[in-house]
Design brief:
CATH topology of the largest domain: Translation Initiation Factor IF3
Oligomer: single chain
Structural class: alpha/beta
Shape: rod-shaped
Order of helices and strands: EEHEEHEHEHEE
CATH class of the largest domain: Alpha Beta
Number of strands: 8
Strand content: 25-35%
Length: 151
């Protein structure tokens, strides 16, 4: 087998036993890097460190899958409850997810749509620093909906 040292130098073609002895002397592992070549290529290296570096490369290239998260409020939702939901939406936006803000009306609340508009404006204004308005507030039946995307 062809052997490459830990520093990257070619040690040449040698029998397996001799390659293993060289690896033991260097207190490292003998790793087969190209088994399909003739002769097979082996490298003297720290295998644990190699595996760790491979994992780090894999993790680095992993892309974030953007998800759509929704927060729902009602026109009569208290200020503190809205603040808690806004903080959740802030975390979603910082994690690069889109957020759909919905104000849901029930029963006679539909007579006071301006209250729902006030709530949605309050949510949008408190999230301006981490997100941008993608779809402005629009009325869809018994709800007012808008979409925020991360900056």
């Amino acid at each position: 087998m062809r052997v490459i040292s830990a520093e990257g130098e070619q040690l040449g073609v040698m029998p397996t036993e001799q390659a293993l002895t060289a690896a033991r002397e260097a207190d490292l592992d003998l790793v087969e890097v190209a088994p399909n070549e003739r002769p097979p290529v082996c490298r003297i290296m720290d295998f644990g460190k190699f595996k760790y570096q491979q994992q780090q490369k894999k993790k680095k290239h992993k892309t974030h899958q953007m998800r759509i998260k929704e927060i729902r409020v009602r026109p009569k939702t208290g200020d503190h409850d809205i603040e808690v939901k806004v903080n959740h939406a802030r975390e979603f936006l910082l994690h690069k997810d889109k957020v759909v803000v919905s104000v849901v009306f029930r029963g006679r609340e539909l007579a006071h749509k301006e209250e729902g508009q006030r709530v949605i404006r309050q949510v949008i204004s408190s999230l301006e620093d981490v997100g941008k308005l993608e779809a402005p507030p629009s009325e869809q039946g018994k709800r007012i909906v808008c979409t925020l995307s991360p900056k």
